[in-house]
Design a protein that fits this description.
296 residues, mainly alpha, two-stranded antiparallel sheet, 16 helices
Length: 296
């Protein structure tokens, strides 16, 4: 494609939003309050980074975007589910998300829990009903997302994060937590395209696997930096929240300069893995740089 990926972002964002709109139950259908809260959790101004990574990987591999709609939607629903739970008083107790009241503030705590709980099975139903790909690929997609959001993925990472408050972690321990808490879903968005792509050589599968791992950790370190340096009205959530909760983060443990340096190292590693694709990886390269350089 001759047009730069940044000029296609709006089209992809509109695409996944249409798919999310079709997937979510209407707010007019009973139970209305629950369905309204589910939609509020999903349509709250997110950048749709995970779907964009799925579509960009599809461009890299020459996959029609229609085969990536289901994984893109499913992973975004899982992401929304996780944010609702993360914001609860029992977790991070946040009142703002993307500049708007969090779901438990806008509605109530019980409704927030139920809304998040309903988003998760909806995601797996969408993957199971994906048309146009082989049954074994659908099963592999379900397994991929289940692992990414379970106790060996996102949920496990959140558990480690809560247990690590006020603790001193090594860089290796911290990055392991990040690879689960944040990296797992980002990695899944990229690998989902590999599963849909029939006959992808192992060398290229491994390259995208490594790319996803590196950029997932970089994403969370950048979030840590923005929590220190960003302003609430810009980052969409209360600045300095990590420090107030005594979170184990890269800046708190190793300082801002080392955090920036590690982000740059991970970006270099991620981009090196894309060299095997040549110019076909231009979209992924742009997104990787955006992830690390956003807010600058």
């Amino acid at each position: 494609m001759t047009q730069k990926f940044e000029h296609r972002i709006d089209d992809y964002t509109e695409r996944v939003n249409r798919c999310l709109e079709a997937a979510l139950p209407p707010a007019s259908v009973a139970p209305e309050r629950l369905h309204e809260a589910m939609r509020y959790a999903v349509f709250n101004g997110g950048k749709r980074v995970r779907p964009l990574l799925a579509y960009a990987t599809g461009e890299c591999l020459g996959i029609d975007a229609r085969f990536l709609d289901a994984p893109a939607v499913a992973i975004e629903l899982i992401h929304a589910f996780s944010l609702v739970h993360d914001d609860l008083p029992a977790m991070d107790d946040d009142v703002l998300r993307r500049g708007k009241p969090t779901v438990h503030i806008q509605y109530d705590e019980a409704t927030a829990i139920l809304a998040a709980d309903a988003l998760q099975p909806l995601a797996f139903g969408i993957l199971a009903n994906l048309e146009g790909v082989a049954a074994d690929a659908r099963i592999e997609l379900v397994r991929l997302v289940a692992d990414a959001c379970g106790s060996v993925g996102m949920t496990g990472g959140q558990s480690i994060d809560l247990a690590a408050e006020g603790e001193e972690l090594s860089a290796r321990e911290l990055e392991h937590m990040y690879s689960l808490k944040t990296g797992a879903l980002i990695h899944a968005a990229i690998v989902s395209a590999c599963i849909v792509c029939d006959g992808l050589p192992q060398e290229k599968t491994a390259a995208l696997d490594n790319f996803g791992s590196s950029i997932g950790i970089a994403f969370q370190i950048k979030d840590d930096i923005l929590d220190v340096e960003g302003e609430t009205h810009v980052i969409g959530k209360p600045a300095g929240a990590d420090q107030r909760l005594d979170k184990a983060t890269y800046p708190s443990l190793f300082g801002l300069e080392r955090s920036r340096q590690r982000c740059a190292e991970l970006l270099d590693s991620a981009l090196a893995n894309l060299e095997v694709f040549g110019d076909d990886a231009a979209s992924l390269e742009w997104l990787a740089r955006f992830i690390v350089e956003r807010g600058q």
